[in-house]
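Hey L., structure's done. Input below.
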Amino acid sequence: VAEPFALRSQSQFRLPPPPALDSGRYAADLAEVRAYGAADSTVRSVEQTETAQFWYGSSFTLYTEPLRVALTRSSESLAGQARLVALFHVASVDTQIATSDSKYAYTRWRPVTAIRTGAIEPDTAWTPLHVTPAHPDYPSGHGTYSGSAEGVLTALSGARTAPFELTSPTAPGVTRTYTTWRQLSVENVDARVWSGIHTRSADEAGIALGRTVARHVLERQGELLAAR
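Output:
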């Protein structure tokens, strides 16, 4: 079992359960991903498909550039920049530990399984735009990583920055421009729905969990970075 850096335990920030299978929120989530996340969707726009493709890659890779932007524009000393890098990665590691805890506490099925075999209008032929990873839906790992990164970058470099460009290994030749760290989180939430691999509830819960862990890490930074 992985040991966190700052969390008291893997379950310290375990999320509340996902929406009940007989709830209106669950039905709405499933209807959205069924329509917008299908490989042959007739309602997903070209721009939405491009966004899904852009964010399909590893969050670790995708957030390397935003971290580099924050460092390049930082007025901090070398020690201050090293602090940013350290806290960014401590938060991301602890967030992934917290993510796995919540995922396997609830083992909520992915949209592809819910749509093909669930009680709500089952469709055995439904196929998501992108291949579904082999771990539970709730919360979204992309979402938790994004929320964690947003939390640290906002706290240590400010919420807004001059426009910066971001590229993606899963969208060669495409460049997207942002001015806030929160914009990345918003796109991440939408992208995973439009990819057909997460419900919106799982994405939004992931962002919230990542922000919570980041806040906790930042509160303990004095202890974590103290000379030994």
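The CA atoms of residues 78 and 216 lie 24 Å apart. The chain has one domain: 59-224.

-- N.
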